[in-house]
Structure formats: structure tokens, C-alpha cells
Amino acid sequence: MAVAPLIFALLGDSPPGRGFLIDFSVALGFVGLSMIGLQFALVARFQSAAAPFGEDAVVQFHRQISYVATLFMLAHPALLLVQDISLIALFNPVTAPWRARFAVTSTICVLAIMITSIWRRRLRMRYEVWQGLHMLLSIASALFALAHIELVGHYVDTPWKRVLWVVMTAAFVGLIVWVRLVRPLRRLGRPWEVEQVTAERGATTTISLRPVGHDGFTFEPGQFGWITVGRSPFALTQHPFSFSSSAEADGRVQMSIRALGDFTSSVADLRPGTRAYLDGPHGVFSPDRNEGPGFVLIAGGVGISPVMSMLRTFADRDDRRPCHLFYASRTLEDTTFLEELRELQRRLDLTLVLVLEIPPRDWTGERGRIDQAVLGRWLPERYLRMQFFICGPPPMLDAMESTLAELGVPAAHVHTERFVFV
Ligand SMILES: Cc1cc2nc3c(=O)[nH]c(=O)nc-3n(C[C@H](O)[C@H](O)[C@H](O)COP(=O)(O)OP(=O)(O)OC[C@H]3O[C@@H](n4cnc5c(N)ncnc54)[C@H](O)[C@@H]3O)c2cc1C
Predict the structure, then answer these.
(1) Which comes out higher in pLDDT, residue 46 or 124?
(2) Is the shortest distance between the CB of 285 and ligand 1 below 6 Å?
(3) Nearest CA to ligand 1 atom 51
(4) Where residue 422 falls among pLDDT bands split at 50, 70, 90?
(5) Cα–ligand 1 centroid distance for 393 (angstroms)
(6) Is residue 391 part of a domain?
(7) For residue 16, what are the contacts with CB-CB under 8 A and spacing of at least 6?
(8) Ligand 1 atom closest to Cα of residue 285
(9) What is the mean pLDDT of residues 253-260?
(10) From the CB of 260, is ligand 1 less than 6 Å away?
(11) Cβ(275) to ligand 1 under 6 A?
């Protein structure tokens, strides 16, 4: 799809070539633009498209392929200048024709997207501000680039090539309308209500949500949803949280949220009856999709949420396959769901390995971080056949991925959920 514009340009009557460098530069510009257009589809949360890879892999791919698209877009004017340095005049915003102004503005938008995405934390930009800016700049860069192509007119000047461009542009605009208008409109008709707010250990709050006037949805243990609370479903910012409740529950869902920033810290103050909108379920981090003779679950901090959903679901299903849970927490007091996990040991074949960073004085269990030595002490003999689910802070995920590879666990048996998209 990324090279489709080149195929359009080659088909039928083509204008005479303008030398390799110019044609190559134009080709890079076209491909760069269609790659940027495709990003809108990549991040539009189409579940069937994300399912084979997992949502975090799709976001990771979005990030990396965007560097390539930006390079192509920058190479387009750079090669033109190599061919003819006098074209530098096109960069003067006062004297340049509109076709060049649109191109320069589009490129500035792309560079702004890159800078704010790579250095968001260093620029101390709030996530919500970044997200809004990211969307506006992306739409602006694509529209300015399309205006540039239209005004230059080369390679798109026969009637049916115009039709193809109109179709491509319409698909792009349609995607935005679908994501920002049609989907929120659908959610408007399927509201949820906060039914209960429960304080948990470790600065964590569980909110229980009840569907209002509809049946809710079914989800797989380990999946997540995007939530908007107290605002309209059209709100720009939604927050992703894993479901922590059993997938066998009656249409209600729970999310367990640790206070780490402005939104997550406000959750404890939510009142029962507050309106909420849920987009979900999303994600492929689920034992239902990766069956095995047993499971090794590795959780760090609030990464216990989706794992809790898995264990509660296993208990409701009376599923006695062996589970080994390695759970890293700062202190015993911070260990969310501690009591319920001990309780679940009675209903499941569950080995619980708590790894505390700052253990109490009389602690005889594991301490420090989950590492190869800890895994080695507790993994069952036939661990290579088991399915591994890891959820927690990114450094822990990175460490676990390489440790499990060293232990010979096949990559296909290792499933991760990263709680940070950007
Ligand atoms: C698939 C997935 C599942 C998650 N499940 C849970 C869970 O079960 N429990 C839990 O406590 N946390 C979970 N998180 C993390 C949670 O979404 C963020 O901590 C939360 O959105 C932070 O919002 P804030 O305004 O409180 O924090 P801020 O201080 O604004 O942000 C802290 C960091 O969180 C991330 N973040 C902030 N806002 C968003 C947003 N709207 N969308 C995506 N990321 C954002 C950014 O990396 C940011 O730097 C999950 C994240 C993902 C991606």
C-alpha cells in the first residue's frame, strides 16, 4: 500500500521523465506520504488488524516506521536541492509559490511530530497535550502534503489518476471521521456507570463498571479497554487499563488503577453513579489465545491487574492447570491483592513467589528483583512447555524477555503487555 502512488504514476500515460534524481526524489515523497497516511490506519485500534501482533507491537512498529517515512519525506526536498541548488528559493515563505509553502509547512509539521514524540518527557509535555498535538499535527501534515501534490500536478494530472488520489484522500479523511466521530457516537449509545470504588493496597483503586441500558461486552482475561470518565466519548484523551475482574462475570467489568499521574490519582475520588465510556475489549495478552499445559505469570507492580483477571477467571472456570506467579512489589504493604492471591492458592494450583524490594525484617521469601536466579529456584521442571505472561514496567519486561530467552523459553511462548505506549 505504501508504494501504491508509484504504481498509479507508472500506469497509463506518464509524463516524460525529468531525470533520475528528480523522479527518485518525487517517488520518495509519494511513498513517505502514503506511509504517513497508513499510520492513521495502524493506530485506529482495528482489533482484527492488531490481533496477530498485539497492540504494543503495533504501536512500536508505528513509532519505527514513522522514522522511515520522515526520512523519505526529508529526502524528497534534499535530493531536489542536490539536483538544482537554485530551488532553495522555494524555501522563502514570502516569495515561494503556494505549492512550495504547503510542502514546507507539511515537513515542519512532521518534524514537530518527531521532536514532541521522541523528547516528550524531556520537554515536560503532558501526555494529554502531546496526544492532542500529535493528532492535529498528523492531520495537518497529511493535508498540506496532499495540497502540495495537487498544486504541483505532475504525475496526478490524468482524470483517472485524479480519481485514485481522491479515493486515497477520501479513505484517509474517512478513517479520521470513523475514529473520531462514528466510533464515539456508537459509544454514546452504550454508556457505563461507576458502581463501586474500592481502595486497594499499593495506591491502587479498583473501579467496578456496570453497563447502562445494554449488555456490556465479553472479554478475554488479560485484555484491556480505553476509558473516558465523566466526559463525553468524544473526549480526545482516553486512558488504557487492563480488566482486573474475571472474564466470567455478569457483564460488569473492573479496572484496578495505580495512582501514578493526574488522571490515575483522581480515580480514588470517583463517585458511584459517574458516567463512563469504554472502548474495548482490546489486546491479545490472554491465556485464552495461547493455551498450554500451565502458565508462568510474571507481574511487576500494577502489572498484577491483567494477571488477577486471569487467575480469577481460572478460579471461576475451575481450571486447575498449574500456574506459577512471580510478583515483584516494593513492600509487603504495597502488594496489591495480597490477601486475595493467598485465598486463590486454595482454589487453584497456584505457586505464589513474592519478590519484595524492601522486605520486612522477618521476611524469608525472595527479595530484590525477579531475575534468572529467582526464576531458576521456582520454575517447574517442564517450564519450556508452559506459556509465559509478563506485565509490568518496561525495564522489567526488557529484562525478562532476555532472561527467558537465555533460559531457552521459545519466543512464541512469551507474551508481554507494556503499560506505556509513549
Ligand atoms: C495496554 C495498557 C494497559 C494498562 N493497564 C493498566 C492497569 O491495569 N492499571 C494501571 O494502573 N495502569 C495501566 N496502564 C497504564 C495507564 O494507562 C497509565 O498509567 C495512565 O494512562 C496514566 O495516566 P495519568 O494521567 O495518571 O498519568 P500521566 O502522569 O499523565 O502519565 C504517566 C505516563 O502514563 C502514560 N499515559 C498517560 N496518559 C495516557 C493515555 N491516555 N494513554 C496511554 N498512556 C498514557 C504516559 O507514558 C505517561 O508518561 C496501562 C497501560 C497500557 C498501555
Answers:
(1) 124
(2) no
(3) 419
(4) low
(5) 11
(6) yes
(7) none
(8) 1
(9) 96
(10) yes
(11) no
Q: For atom 38 of ligand 1, which residue has the closest CA?
A: 127
Question: Both 10 and 147 in a single domain?
Answer: yes
Which atom of ligand 1 lies nearest, measured to the CA of 264? Answer: 26
Q: Out of 144-153, 270-279, 351-360, which region has the weakest mean confidence (pLDDT)?
A: 144-153
CATH of the domain at 196: 2.40.30.10
Q: Where are the alpha helices (DSSP H) in 221-318?
A: 262-266, 304-317
**Residue 348: all three cell numbers together:** 487453584
- Percentage of the chain modeled with pLDDT above 90: 69
Angle between helices 55-83 and 20-42 (to 10 degrees): 160
Q: Which residues of 215-246 are buried (b: 16+ CB within 10 A; e: fewer)?
A: ebeebbbbbbbbbbbeeebeeeebbbbbbbbb
**127 Cβ inside 6 Å of ligand 1:** yes
Task: Convert the pLDDT of each residue in 349-368 to its tens digit.
Answer: 999 999 999 999 999 999 99
- Is residue 206 scored above 90 in pLDDT? yes
- The residue-averaged pLDDT of 358-386 equals 95
User: How far does residue 420's CA lie from ligand 1's centre (Å)?
Assistant: 6
- Tell me which H or E stretch contains 391: strand 387-392
Query: Which domain range does residue 274 map to?
Result: 192-282
Residues 272 and 232 in one domain: yes
Please determine, for residue 305, whether its predicted confidence score (pLDDT) is greater than 80.
Answer: yes
Determine which residue's CA is closest to atom 53 belonging to ligand 1.
419
Q: Is the CB of 419 under 6 A from ligand 1?
A: yes
